[in-house]
Amino acid sequence: MVAKAGSSLGYVVYRLGFALRETGQALDRVGSRLQGSYAFREELNRARPLQNLFNLKPSLGTDAFVAPNASVIGDVTLGPRSSVFYGSVLRADSGSIKVGAGTNIQDGSLIRTAPQSIDEHAADTTIGANVTIGHQVSMHGVTLEDEVLVGMGAVLSHGTVVRKGAMVAAGAVVPPGTEIPAGQIWGGNPARFLRDLKDNESSFLAESAEHYVNVAKNHIKENSGSLENVARARGLA
User: Fold this and answer.
1) How does it sit in the membrane (predicted)?
2) Which of 104, 136, 194, 221 is the 20 to 30 Å CA partner of 7?
3) Domain around 190
């Protein structure tokens, strides 16, 4: 039997389910005690979206979004309206990571600082405003200027500089110390110049960033409420 959204019967069913789950957890704890040393115990996981690293602390601008299972660690600064989506990791332990306003870092990406020992290039990673970083991108010790787009699965090695309004194609592998001029598309392994961007492609770069600002707003709203309020909004309570 399916209860109508918002009905009293639906709320009773929801509360019954909640009580059964709580009872199950309590029984699991009792069973673990009875099993003693043979019990499987899930250790406390300290992972959380924002993590200090000694005296290094992340900083978030107004309306920045960090997904619940993303990790922003150490000396990371996220600009206003920027977003870090699910499963992404930003780890700044040997330098700083700065992300500009309106920039989006999509699911499963890894952004790090470069070890100080790697040649003469700066260890910091600096990402400008209104940048789109696609899914599962990996980069460390790089500089991206404003309105850059990095395609899915690209790898940007230390010392890479991508100038304003340029694009790195999906799956590209950019060698250390490469500079990609403004308004160009680079791709391949190793990455090389492919062509200049067309006018409609250049305008798309800013549009892509603004699109993800709006997407992030929905995720902020979804993740800000309690579980019970979310269930009510979906007609489950």
Assistant:
1) Peripheral membrane protein
2) 221
3) 50-215
